[in-house]
Amino acid sequence: MRLALFADIHANRQAFAACLDAARARGAERLICLGDIVGYGADPEWAVDTVVDLVAKGAVAVRGNHDNAIGVPSDSMNADAQAAIDWTRSRLSGEQKAFLAGLPIMREEDNRLYVHSEASAPAKWRYVRDTSDAARSMMATVLQITFCGHIHRPGLYSMSSTAKMTSFVPTSGVAVQLLTGRRWLAVLGSVGQPRDGDPAASFAMFDTASREITYHRVPYDVATAAARIKAGGLPVWLADRLSLGR
Q1: DSSP state string for 136-170
Q2: Are 85 and 77 in contact (CB under 8 A)?
Q3: What's the predicted TM-score (pTM) here?
Q4: Residue ranges in the chain assigned as alpha helix (H)
Q5: What is the pLDDT of residues 182-205, one digit of tens each?
Q6: What PANTHER family does UniProt report for this protein, alphabetically (predicted)?
Q7: Which of 44, 206, 207, 227 pairs as cysteine with 38 (C-beta 3.0–4.6 A)?
Q8: Which domains does the chain show, CATH number per domain?
Q9: What is the Cα–Cα distance from 11 to 37, expressed in whole angstroms?
């Protein structure tokens, strides 16, 4: 089965729509959303409704920290992020809020784990920044492959049978086989707010038969996404950063 994996949509309609189109054009058979459907962007209602529809059709979705903050106030967000959460909360219906609150924090499927942040303490929303963070997450599950997001930058980590760690930044469009002799942690880039210097939206495809993962970048209408943020009265930096990829 060909899986399409998306993380950190952040209510960016233009970016998510472009990624969905690109994934379907590449033969995606099942869609996986790794959390943070809302936050930062100007179209939370559309984003939630889209994921609700996808889940009804067989997609998997887990809860991210921004999704969580809609129902459970966070004391760890910066001022711009908190302003966006407060604004988003005022826009969502009771049914949309209930959907976000009801999302699982992790989901297991075959030999794969789906989680927004990392597996050792998923509700603490830790970032996977380096091999030590990745190792902590991998050691917390018996499953061979973990897919996560949260940090908004693509990365791929592996652990050998002797616990030796490797890591690298995957190249867009180049397939990497996740060999069975190692354990893997695939960190997705962000659909709606990339932070690796490339403004193009990010998602990945994984073939469960060949065990190949391919990261993709998708240009989208950044100007419209930014204009909608400004028109909505959200912090201007949330619009300006989209064109910078940071």
Answers
A1: HHHHT-SSSEEEE-SSSS-EEEEE-TT--EEEEPP
A2: yes
A3: 0.96
A4: 13-25, 44-56, 65-71, 79-91, 94-102, 131-139, 222-231, 236-240
A5: 999 999 999 999 999 999 999 999
A6: BLL5683 PROTEIN (PTHR42850:SF2), METALLOPHOSPHOESTERASE (PTHR42850)
A7: 44
A8: 2-244 (3.60.21.10)
A9: 6
